[in-house]
Design brief:
Elements (H helix, E strand, L loop, with lengths): L1 H24 L7 H21 L9 H25 L4 H10 L9 H9 L4 H26 L5 H12 L2 H15 L5 H28 L9 H23 L4 H11 L5 H10 L3 H27 L6
Helix pairs in contact: 1-9, 1-13, 2-8, 2-9, 3-4, 3-6, 3-10, 4-6, 5-6, 6-7, 6-11, 10-11, 10-13, 12-13
């Protein structure tokens, strides 16, 4: 158990440091803009490029793995959407945010560092595939549903959604990594060093920024839906991913572990960003992110303990 705590402490410690810094120095949230730009457009893309470009190309074309992971994630999304819409009688837009809160994990900020530290660099490929394909789909699904529910549409909307998804820096960096891996191109040493420096900064900066973000978004309204959304995110989502992966079979056990670990992450801060953008359920989304992040200390610890003890068959 001490090993698990030693593994998790740096990650949640960085979040706490960011949280504390925001409370002490009290700069406005706009002050984090440049840090977030560095994380999203430089550090994390560099990490994905580094990991993917050094991986044998045949490992990067496992679309069966991606499709099973996405199917599991959107099964949870659809279940939560059905609960919110048919049982809770919420509107389509509000229900969409709730469904994302229970199925969209913090895969970009927390995923790479935690998975690579817990499972080793061999987990880089499944982690990169999950982040890129899930993020791309989320960036397509969210505006599409919101626009449809709001009566918007047209070719300009479709073009905007596709461009936003396809030109996301995570996806672009991964695509470049694919190209380097497929071509066997030797990346110049100077560029490799730059990428390495940026990649090393990805996890610390992302987790610190996450702590700041949580601190600057006060919890004003705790939703009643949190009673099923948080358990769905932290327990049901990884369980469904595990069952889908095992039912399909044929995957490297390490890849299954990576997929389950990524699914077990707390609600993504991007859920608040989406909610705020459309003016729907954003205060409650903030509460859900904070509570799921705190609760994930226990659930992630239990999951990692089970994985390290080989208590789960993969």
């Amino acid at each position: 158990m001490a090993d698990i705590l030693a593994l998790l402490f740096p990650f949640f410690g960085l979040i706490v440091i960011g949280f504390g810094a925001a409370k002490i120095f009290r700069h406005p949230e706009e002050g984090t803009a440049w840090l977030n730009i560095f994380i999203i457009y430089a550090a994390l893309p560099a990490l994905f490029f580094k990991l993917v470009s050094r991986t044998p190309f045949e490992q990067l074309t496992r679309l069966d793995f991606v499709s099973i992971d996405v199917a599991a994630t959107y099964s949870v999304f659809l279940l939560l959407f059905a609960i919110g819409y048919f049982w809770k009688k919420n509107g389509v837009r509000e229900t969409t945010i709730q469904a994302f809160a229970g199925s969209y994990g913090n895969i970009g900020y927390m995923g790479p560092g935690l998975a690579l530290l817990a499972l080793g660099e061999e987990a880089a490929v499944p982690v990169a595939l999950i982040i890129c394909f899930e993020n791309a789909l989320h960036f397509i699904v969210a505006p599409t549903v919101m626009a449809t529910a709001g009566g918007g549409g047209g070719r300009s909307l479709v073009r905007h959604i596709l461009l936003r998804a396809l030109l996301h820096p995570f996806l672009v960096a991964t695509a470049l990594g694919f190209a380097v891996s497929a071509s066997g191109f030797a990346v110049p040493q100077a560029f490799n060093r730059l990428v390495g420096y940026l990649a090393q900064a990805a996890a610390p900066c992302a987790l610190f920024a996450m702590g700041v973000t949580l601190a600057l978004r006060p919890v004003r309204r705790v939703p009643t839906e949190i009673n099923y959304i948080v358990p769905a995110k932290l327990i049901l989502h990884p369980l469904v991913v595990y069952l889908f992966m095992m039912a399909h079979g044929g995957f490297d056990p390490l890849w299954v572990k990576a997929a389950v670990l990524m699914a077990a992450l707390p609600t993504a801060t991007n859920v608040f960003v989406i909610a705020r953008q459309y003016g729907i359920w954003y205060e409650r989304a903030s509460a859900t992110i904070l509570i799921s992040t705190i609760a994930s200390v226990a659930t992630l610890g239990m999951l990692l303990a089970l994985i390290s003890a080989n208590a789960i068959p993969f």
